[in-house]
Amino acid sequence: MRGGQGAARAPVIQFTNCRILRGGALLREDLWVRGGCILDPEKLFFEERRVADQQRDCGGCILAPGFIDVQINGGFGVDFSQASEDVGSGIALVARRILSHGVTSFCPTLVTSPLEVYHKVLPQIPVKSGGPHGAGVLGVHLEGPFISREKRGAHPEAHLRSFEADAFQDVLATYGGLDNVRIVTLAPELDHSHEVIRALTALGICVSLGHSVADLGTAEKAVQSGATFITHLFNAMLPFHHRDPGIVGLLTSDRLPAGRRIFYGMIADGIHTNPAALRIAHRAHPKGLVLVTDAVPALGLGNGRHTLGQQEVEVDGLTAYVAGCSVECALEAASLHPAQLLGLEKRKGTLDFGADADFVVLDDSLHVRATYISGELVWQAEEARP
């Protein structure tokens, strides 16, 4: 429920005894919610002469915008890149289970796959609002198949593709259409890539650079054509070199269009990227950092053999930690920055007045205590329940 008389009649809930993330700082303020939106209490008091209908004591916890994961390949045994007759049930399972991690919106990600997989899977992943059933689906992230063979990583070489002469029509034929697609990762050094970037961005689709051997000049041209994101910075790209820093150099490039911000995803688990590299990137360009999980179907299942698209992966041990920035910066990198990347910062990734009331309740150790979508409690830790 957003706006209108229905929202005005909805009960007003006041979350008290909390620190809310707003404007890059943790503030000792209450959070007011009505009709699924963040409410300005001054307008409530002085224009409507109303007070809260309900109060909820947060026990001194942090209230931060709900996390947005723009790169997640699956989880809990579900592989988004596996074709089936009921892809939706797998999406629903992951959407429900990631609520306990504070994720309120996500982009299901498909790795490089055969054409028949795209044609079968993509129509089964519609954009969907979040709620008690699970996190919202913002649109699909297509990671490949238009990527570098040299930097393909876990993507199967047999299904990689280059752009044909009629490049954008080739993209449409490969994916079977672009309905519900939100992000496309491609290698900008491929012939005709700039034509594709311009066509995708004209449709409102975010173009990300990744799995690439592009030099800095090629990457800058891609951004000038409309690219705004870097897929898992440092991974699956040329290493930084002082004579040509490659895609990494976009973080400090002075040849980007005026007013254009480049965002970059990072897997901050201490394995994919050394904590020192994470600190370097953050200090160079803190406002562009987007934390992603790049989670595989093994998420939540532990060690063993699991699938990732058309391949098997072996999981042996899991480690995750945050290095190199403040709590406020880390929380914004998981919420505000991905929302800005997708052009959703007026509604998502913020606790500003008028935004969707999607937020997460965290203790001082940043453990998730509760998750709310549209002001409704959708998940709560056992020990936090009354």
List key phrases describing it.
single chain; 386 residues; alpha/beta; 9-stranded parallel beta sheet; 6-stranded mixed beta sheet; 10 helices; 24% strand; globular
Q: Any overview of this molecule?
A:
It is a single chain. Helix content is 21%, strand content 24%. The chain has 10 helices and 23 strands. The strands form 5 sheets. Strands 8, 11, 12, 13, 14, 15, 16, 17 and 18 form a 9-stranded parallel beta sheet that branches. It is α/β, with parallel strands linked by helices and 386 residues long. Mean pLDDT is 91; it is low at 313-323. The longest helix has 11 residues, at 87-97. It has helices at residues 4-9, 41-46, 87-97, 115-121, 167-175, 193-202, 216-225, 275-284, 327-333, 336-341; strands at 12-16, 19-22, 25-27, 31-34, 37-38, 54-57, 62-65, 67-72, 74-75, 78-79, 103-110, 136-137, 140-143, 181-186, 206-209, 229-230, 263-266, 289-291, 304-308, 311-315, 359-362, 368-373, 376-380. Helix 5 (167-175) links the parallel strand 13 and strand 14 (181-186). The radius of gyration is 21 Å and the shape is globular.
Query: Kindly, what is the distance between the CA atoms of the first and last residues, rounded to a whole number of angstroms?
Result: 27 Å
| Unreliable parts | 313-323
Based on CA inertia axes, which overall geometry fits? globular
Helix content: 10-25%
User: How is the biggest beta sheet arranged?
Assistant: 9 strands, parallel
- Mean pLDDT score: 91
Rg, please? 21 Å
β-strand amount: 15-25%
Q: How many strand segments? A: 23
Query: Oligomeric form of this entry?
Result: single chain
Count of helical stretches: 10
Alpha-beta classification: alpha/beta
